[in-house]
Structure formats: structure tokens, C-alpha cells
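Input (structure):
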């Protein structure tokens, strides 16, 4: 059997308001999107460089469960970056809600995290 590689991927986050969440990711986190699907919007794919992130609307807020509410300190999405300090500075200047500043982690990453409108923790890490 031949092993096939994975070409790409994108986390999916369940959100209360797709348009508001997409605009937060665009304006505060530097992602872009071309389209919102549905009326009212129920789905969106965002991009920052080659990396994707999907948002899907949930009518029942009980279905929106950030991982940190189940396991302390756990992220909902993690993105590796070339320069965590520069990314942190950029996102801070955009008004992102910073959960913790760039910190050296015992697993060999310089990492920081932001919190989005739905309470998700999005981390950015630079391998050291």
C-alpha cells in the first residue's frame, strides 16, 4: 500500500455569528475571506497566506465549546509562524485580544495566543 501525504488542512470553529467572527479574523488577525455562504451567513473560509480556517454558524450557543473550558490551557487552533514576536506585535497593533504574550515554552516554541469573539484560543508558535 502506498502512503499518501496530506496536502493541506483547516481547523473548523463553530461560531454564533459568522460575519462578525470573519470580520474579527480579518481586521484583528490579518486573515482574508472572499465569500460568506448563506443568508444569514452560515459558513466562511478564511486564509492567512496558505493556511485556512473555517467558520460555521451554530444556532444553539451550547454547541460553542472552546477547548479551554474542557481542558485548562488547551488551544482551539495552533499556527506555526516564522517570527512570533513580529506576529504578536502586528496582532496587538490590530487590536486583537491577546490571551498571553510571547512566551518560551518547554516544548521548544516561542508562543503567544489570542482569544476570538466566541472565546476560542488561537495560538501562534515559532519553533526555537
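Output (sequence):
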Amino acid at each position: 500500500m502506498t502512503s499518501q501525504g496530506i496536502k493541506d488542512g483547516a481547523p473548523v470553529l463553530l461560531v454564533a455569528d459568522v460575519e462578525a467572527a470573519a470580520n474579527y479574523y480579518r481586521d484583528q488577525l490579518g486573515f482574508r475571506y472572499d465569500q460568506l455562504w448563506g443568508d444569514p451567513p452560515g459558513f466562511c473560509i478564511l486564509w492567512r497566506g496558505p493556511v485556512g480556517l473555517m467558520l460555521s454558524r451554530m444556532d444553539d450557543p451550547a454547541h460553542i465549546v472552546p477547548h479551554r473550558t474542557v481542558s485548562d490551557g488547551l488551544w482551539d487552533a495552533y499556527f506555526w509562524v516564522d517570527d512570533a514576536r513580529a506576529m504578536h506585535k502586528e496582532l496587538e497593533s490590530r487590536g486583537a485580544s491577546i490571551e498571553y504574550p510571547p512566551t518560551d515554552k518547554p516544548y521548544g516554541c516561542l508562543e503567544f495566543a489570542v482569544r476570538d469573539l466566541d472565546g476560542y484560543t488561537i495560538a501562534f508558535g515559532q519553533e526555537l
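Notes: Helices lie at 18-27, 84-93. Strands lie at 12-15, 36-37, 43-48, 51-57, 77-80, 97-104, 109-115, 121-127.
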